[in-house]
Design a protein that fits this description.
335 residues; mainly beta; Beta-galactosidase, Chain A, domain 5; nine-stranded antiparallel β-sheet; eight-stranded antiparallel β-sheet; binds 6-O-phosphono-beta-D-glucopyranose; isomerase
């Protein structure tokens, strides 16, 4: 090689001051995906159920409650974090033929999802965020085998978990790939971690109609309090008028949950006896440190088949409702 005395210097291909990027890593035999932001926040998702099992803030503080006895080996739905509820919420009703054979809360939380990839973005202020996408469909190998028989529809789901400095967003898009319509529910069963349930209150439910699942003889009620507190077993399905609810610990807002296209919010705390009866709930007084809020859609969520969607455009316009796709459903958690 000939040496040239005035050889030009190599120009670096990328600037040496590149902005730090989120790091995405896999662990436990590729069964978990963790994303970490340069600012310190992190989220971990188990492919089983696409269950978010950890979300930490920039200081490393865990924001979600996860039972110490939760099964993380794919043998049971995870007790804690954010299990996904689809296509049925609660015990299926024997009166609804389509979902009657499903198990409580459906199969999304007990199926192994596929990791579809990550995308990163940067805000104008330079803050990096990361989106993790997961997929499950009727053709997927990971679909809970019992589900195919119990709910024989062609469908596909894309679930996205976006971590930003100060917030976590979950969104799901459900599509009917079948030639017949189906009804479905979809909820994010979110176990929020709180310091002490006795000083927690929830605002944003004032005036909301709700179904009190613990009062089957008289279930239809209206929330009269602007500050709902939890003082015993609670299991209610709210239809709030506001898209934002705030969870406060004392006077301090600790979670602000914004819903987009999600009609309902379930408020659940098992309290002493129910917690004691659940084998995977530990410690038994863990109910003092958790509040389950499930933003989601309970009630009619009818997805039309592909053919009907095409044929039905005019009809849908006439009905004035977009029932083609369940839509993007999102909860943003962050204080
Ligand atoms: O024990 P699972 O199936 O996870 O359900 C826990 C709770 O989930 C809540 O969302 C329901 O409203 C409760 O009725 C139910 O007990």
């Amino acid at each position: 090689m000939v040496e040239r005395p005035n050889k030009p210097k190599l120009v670096p291909l990328s600037p040496t001051t590149a902005t730090p990027q989120p790091i995405v890593s896999f662990s436990d035999d590729n069964s978990r995906v963790t994303a970490e932001l340069p600012s310190g926040e992190s989220v971990t998702v188990l492919l089983y159920g696409a269950t978010v099992i950890s979300w930490k803030d920039a200081e490393g503080q865990e924001k979600l409650w996860l039972s110490e006895a939760a099964k993380l080996d794919g043998s049971k739905a995870v007790r804690g974090g954010i299990p996904l509820v689809f296509p049925v919420f609660g015990p299926p009703s024997p009166d609804h033929a389509q979902t009657a054979k499903l198990v409580q809360h459906g199969f999304a939380r007990t199926s192994r999802w596929e990791f579809l990839g990550k995308s990163t973005s940067e805000s104008a202020a330079g803050a990096a965020s990361v989106k993790l996408d997961f997929g499950l469909s009727s053709a997927a190998e990971g679909l809970d085998p019992a589900a195919r028989e119990a709910w024989p529809f062609k469908f596909s789901l894309i679930y996205s978990v976006t971590l930003c400095p100060g917030s976590l967003t979950t969104a799901i898009v459900a599509t009917n790939d079948d030639d017949k319509p189906f009804d479905c529910h979809a909820l994010f069963h979110t176990y929020l971690r709180v310091d002490d349930i006795s000083s927690v209150s929830i605002s944003g439910l004032d005036g909301a109609a709700y179904i009190d699942k613990l009062s089957p003889s008289d279930p239809n009620k209206t929330e009269s309090s602007s500050s709902v507190t939890i003082t015993g077993e609670t299991d209610r399905v709210y239809t709030p008028t506001s898209n934002e609810i705030t969870v406060l610990q004392g006077d301090k807002p600790i979670f602000r949950i914004t819903r987009d296209n999600l009609t309902n919010v379930v408020v659940w705390n098992p309290w002493t006896e129910k917690a004691a009866s659940m084998g995977d709930f530990a410690p038994k007084d863990g109910y003092k440190n958790m509040l389950v809020l499930n933003p989601g859609r309970w009630g009619l969520g009818r997805l039309l088949s592909r053919g009907m969607r095409l044929r039905g455009r005019k009809l849908l316009a006439w009905l004035g409702r977009d029932v083609c796709v369940l839509g993007v459903m999102r909860e943003v958690i962050g204080a």
